[in-house]
Automatic annotation (TrEMBL):
The chain crosses the membrane at residues 12-35, 96-120, 132-154, 183-203. Belongs to the LHFP family. It is found in: Membrane. This is LHPL2 protein. PANTHER family: LHFPL TETRASPAN SUBFAMILY MEMBER 2 PROTEIN (PTHR12489:SF19), LIPOMA HMGIC FUSION PARTNER-LIKE PROTEIN (PTHR12489). One of its GO terms (cellular component) is membrane. It comes from Eurystomus gularis. The gene is Lhfpl2.
């Protein structure tokens, strides 16, 4: 018989696991890893209301994508175009970024799988006599290691030609040149830290769902058990 067990700690772990997976996925897909040096507006890019030149803009560069501004001379307007600069894996600008993409992708896939499984932990707490919380916590720890490897290798690719075109000639491995780090990089770091928090907190979720109080309510014949 399926006993639905909901505790404060298990629900918090489930929600945090889902948030971490989505945060890492969004960061990976974003082009806002590097914010390039300011590009001056062209002479045609004039504000029709003031007659002055528009503010310079900052193109952004991701692991496999980028955002830049294109001008429409005939319409006197400009659009920001975002999309992948690499049509396939081999066209990613740096070998280090290719490795980063692999490590992050593996880590994110593990996190997404754990997030999916975590939804069902309210009804299923063990698999083959193994606590599902402990198994998921172990997987989250492994995913965190993959994410760390990816984030360590990413700055090594700042010396590639693509990064230099955005960050200037002084860009080199682990040196940003004229660029700055975007929100996606910080989100990936924050998600990695929270991944290890989830891995540790999974043990608390397991303790909460196997406590004496839960066992007492199961023995009383309750199928829905909610505890703080």
């Amino acid at each position: 018989m399926c006993h639905v067990i909901v505790t404060c700690r298990s629900m918090l772990w489930t929600l945090l696991s889902i948030v971490v997976a989505f945060a890492e996925l969004i960061a990976f897909m974003s082009a806002d890893w590097l914010i390039g040096k300011a590009k001056p507006s062209s002479s045609e890019d004039v504000d029709n209301r003031t007659g002055g030149s528009q503010e310079p803009y900052h193109p952004t560069l991701g692991i496999y994508g980028r955002c830049t501004r294109i001008s429409h001379m005939q319409f006197s307007r400009r659009d920001t175009l975002c999309g992948p600069y690499a049509e396939n894996f081999n066209e990613i600008a740096s070998g280090f970024w290719q490795a980063t993409a692999i490590f992050l992708a593996v880590g994110i896939m593990i996190l997404c799988a754990v997030a999916f499984v975590s939804v069902f932990t309210m009804c299923v707490q063990s698999i083959m006599k193994k606590s599902i919380f402990n198994v998921c916590g172990l997987l989250q720890g492994i995913a965190g290691l993959f994410l760390i490897l990816g984030l360590i290798l990413y700055p090594a690719g700042w010396g590639c030609q693509k990064a230099i075109s955005y960050c200037g000639p002084y860009a080199s491995p682990y040196k940003l040149g004229d660029c700055s780090l975007g929100w996606a990089f910080y989100t990936a770091i924050g998600g990695t830290i929270l991944t290890f928090v989830c891995a540790v907190f999974s043990a608390q979720a397991e303790i909460a769902t196997s406590s004496d109080k839960v066992q007492e309510e199961i023995e009383e014949g309750k199928n829905l058990i909610c505890l703080l």
